[in-house]
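[job 0412] stage=complex_fold ligand=fe (ii) ion status=START
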Amino acid sequence: MKGASLVPTGEATLGPFFPPRYVDEGANDLTVFEGRKAKGEAIEIHGRVLQEDGTPLENLVVEIWQADAGGIFRHSADPRHAQADPDFLGWGRAATDASGNYRFKTVLPGAPEGRAPHINVMVMFSGLMRILKTTLFFEISSDPVLSAVPPGRKGLLVAKKQGPNSYRFDIRLRGEDETPFFDD
Amino acid sequence: MPSVIQPRDERTQPSRIVPGYPQTPLRNPQQSLVKRAPTLSELTGPLDAAKRVRLLGGDIAGHGGKQAIGQLIHLKVRVLDEDGAPVGGALVEMWQANAAGRYIHPNDDDRAPVDLNFYGAARLVTDESGAFELRTVKPGAYPVPTNDGWWRPPHVHFSMFGKVWLSRLVTQMYFPGEPLNAQDRILNAVPDAAARDRLVARYVPPTGNPPDALVFEHQIVLRGRASTPGQP
Ligand SMILES: [Fe+2]
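[job 0412] stage=complex_fold status=DONE, emitting structure tokens
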């Protein structure tokens, strides 16, 4: 179908009835895939998701996508994908609990070509007509995506180290200290 | 092949803040969204998320003595990219209300009856031609607890994984000829009329096959193409 040009389907909210069984047991643990352990340093990423008035949001769906410990994506578009860790899927899903907290276990991503180590994050929920996409960093560093963020807001994309292997990344959908989201 | 993701035509996508949808002004960013040029990170994505989750077949209307109540329908859906190329091997998650407009979910109240033979969710993978089929019952309409006359028209929810992170899609599919379509705040949040029409499935006049179900066809287009238009 050369020359075809179709318009992407319109997005819509996840609504309040996303089946709880779609947040599979263990889908928030990227350190194990098909029973085998991923290479690299295991870390925990956790945080709270709040709306404008500070209310924590329950059953909000968070998904992440990241490179493996060597900075390689498990995807054919990555020129190095043949060397990707076969035991690391790179994708995970979590839902927030009644206090608005989500939690992932994963491995510290390596630096992909031309990028600082980072984790792509998306948020889906009732009242969000479009998926909200952001990116978690581990420090302020030279990175083309972080560079696109206005100077005063870059720090909001840096996860706070809370222990040797634990990072906190709060997501504020609107209002004070609003998380920068990308216009993708 | 690397995917190219181009900016969207905003008129074909819903507004983020929707009049009469009270959660939207509390949950959507106030600050401008940050523009970025996609890098390899956003132009890759989970191709085999289906290995991480439990699949549920697309035949969800039940059989024998355990059939769901309602109008039996077959939904034939094709998933394409912006070039019109099929997106095969894509994980699809679907959920819907039963024929009475009730979800199996703790958030749904007890206004409408549960159908013990209907859970209303399917999770499957598209075939090589980007197609998948569902055997289900037509969902009922349901009132939204804004208590101001907003009812959701019959609709089916879809969550889909494309080839790359930026092609991830959450959408809803509607049914043709439903009077509630014209006043639904979610469907009508898409400004462009043609884009709204593409969210509505196509009714296929019955041919006798299948003998027991009405057929609807639908097309879903995920973001991404192999090349920019005009390239040879
Ligand atoms: Fe719904």
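Chain B touches chain A through 85 residues (CB under 8 Å).
[job 0412] exit 0
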